[in-house]
Write a structure and sequence with these properties.
The chain has helices spanning 10-34, 38-64, 79-108, 116-143, 146-173, 179-206, 213-224, 258-275, and strands at 231-240, 243-252, 279-288. It is mainly α and 292 residues long. The protein has a 3-stranded mixed sheet with strand order 1-2-3, covered by helices on one side.
Length: 292
């Protein structure tokens, strides 16, 4: 009996996006050339870079799964963050290239009249990319993967870009020929905006930015539900790729033995990791409780 495909798996998700981008690249290139649409050719180039991004993301996830070693005691998961950063550079570069090309077409007034094949290619792209965005974002949120989420936002950028292409081609077919290269210029802006957002999110992790206030609050409330814990202090949350490491001090009764304090800390650590699936480790310091 063949093995059932798990569509919530990060590799399946990435490969699905890769295959879809390969097919769309071919469709859009032919539609752009034979449909005489610069906007569609620009969108095809965008898809070509999406293929490259998907390959990089796949390799990054693969490398991030390597186990801990002496040089990397917390594992290699930050490779995913580096991968997201590389994807952002690719996306930004694509946007700049397409914007430059469209700008020169507008200045030179080298317009063409696109045909219906380019119009239908844009519609097909919008439908497929929106499905990919929703699917990829769902998997990215389940796994809390910055690389998968970056890929999902790239899909959404493609939806907006292709929507601009659709409007531009439709307008050019109605006689406003300048709208086709204008659509290409709009595509470049959407692409650059997506690249900047991906880079911003990656930088937050690289700079050890604190996660959401809600996440920190939930951690505090969970710890304080333990009756032995009288007080918590110095709670710090460090992002490691898609996961987090928590460092916190808890105060317990001062007459507890060292063994009792260790038992409380160990039980709390295990409970936290079980409660929050994205916690890679929890470091707990036990201190005597002194009333303020």
């Amino acid at each position: 009996m063949p093995k059932k495909i798990n569509f919530k798996d990060e590799y399946v998700c990435t490969i699905t996006g890769l295959v879809a981008n390969c097919v769309l690249t071919i469709i859009k290139f032919f539609a752009g050339i034979f449909g005489h649409s610069q906007a569609m050719i620009a969108d095809a180039i965008n898809s070509l870079f999406d293929v490259l991004s998907s390959v990089i993301i796949y390799l990054g996830i693969k490398m991030g799964k390597k186990p801990e070693d002496d040089e990397h005691p917390y594992g290699h998961e930050n490779i995913e963050v580096i991968v997201s950063w590389i994807v952002s550079i690719i996306v930004l570069s694509t946007g700049l290239f397409l914007g430059y090309s469209a700008f020169h077409t507008i200045i030179d007034k080298n317009y063409s009249h696109p045909s219906s094949i380019a119009l239908w290619a844009a519609i097909i792209t919008i439908i497929i990319k929106e499905i990919l965005h929703r699917y990829t974002l769902k998997v990215g949120n389940i796994l809390n993967s910055p690389a998968i989420k970056a890929n999902a936002f790239d899909h959404r950028s493609d939806v907006l870009a292709s929507l601009s292409v659709l409007i531009g081609i439709a307008g050019a077919r109605m006689g406003w020929l300048f709208l086709d290269p204008v659509a290409s210029l709009v595509v470049s802006v959407f692409i650059m905006r997506t690249g900047a957002n991906i880079m911003k999110q990656s930088n937050r992790i690289i700079m050890d930015a604190v996660p959401s206030e809600e996440f920190v609050r939930e951690i505090k409330e969970f710890i304080l539900r333990y009756p032995e814990v009288k007080k918590i202090s110095n709670l710090r949350v460090h992002p490691i790729g898609r996961n987090y490491i928590i460092d916190v001090s808890i105060s317990v009764k001062k007459d507890y033995t060292v063994s009792k304090g260790h038992e409380i800390a160990n039980n709390l650590r295990e409970a936290l990791i079980k409660e929050k699936p994205f916690l890679k480790d929890v470091i707990i310091h036990v201190e005597p409780y002194l009333k303020d």
